[in-house]
Amino acid sequence: MKLLAVLEATTTHFTKHGLPSPRLQAELLISHALSLPRLGLYLQFERELTPAELEHLRPLVRRRTAREPIQHITGTTAFSGLTLRCSPAALVPRPETELLVELATQLLQNQSPGRVIDVGTGTGAIPLALARRQPQHHYLGLDISADALQLARENSTQPASAPPEGTKVEWKQNDLLDGHTESALLLTANLPYLTPEEIASADPEVRHDPALALDGGKDGLDLFRRLLPQAFPLCPTLLLECNPHQTAPLAALAQKFGYPRTTIHSDLTSRPRFVEAHRDGDPCLPPHFA
Fold this sequence. Notes:
By secondary structure, the protein is of the alpha/beta class. The protein has helices spanning 3-16, 22-34, 51-65, 70-74, 96-108, 125-133, 146-155, 196-201, 222-231, 247-256; strands spanning 76-79, 82-85, 115-119, 138-143, 169-173, 186-189, 237-241, 261-266, 272-278.
């Protein structure tokens, strides 16, 4: 069976089962199975696949049809210029979070070297992406999950995601900032913010992420309520990601816990997604707060 015929049949199969972007999903899966770049498929449409190659592909197609995330099947995902290892141990990094990295880069670019803390680091995506952009700083990724931290450590040693030589990136198992006493220039956090109702109605792929990385309590903001008073004595600048309908209440919470200057940033689809918060005397205070 020729590669083009396999691609078309897989696309049709994914369409029938309601997968989003079925052609793209088919291309990604087949290129993974054949160890080819995705665009390399287009140069080999007339290639006859061997029985062994087809046998390797079939269970992968079944897994994706069952709505297992393609990142779990291939074991990697692209994020902010990195290729990160993925597994069910941690949330698959979302494209929206790439904008948080860009916002953090802008805040850090003119600052003297200092510590940056990422709370709920998961795969380590945020610290590792920032380390590539702002290598003069020292990065600390915190997570309550030992399995997630193991994944972050693996990513920090892979050529496609490792920090530049000489840039310090550390990982520590911790429940938010409990017991943490070292100050930081900036704190980033993409904490669990889904409500139980949102988890129940989410795409099937979402429910393959660990519940620990999804459940934010009744209104999705339980962990932020704990984090903000912990952060106040340690971190003058916060960048927080949440659901669009949570940005206004999260900004109000930040103000309540001592961060009077807040602004809301939109994501790649122009929906409010990120809360930037500064307390008085913040060295990262940008011009629009002046």
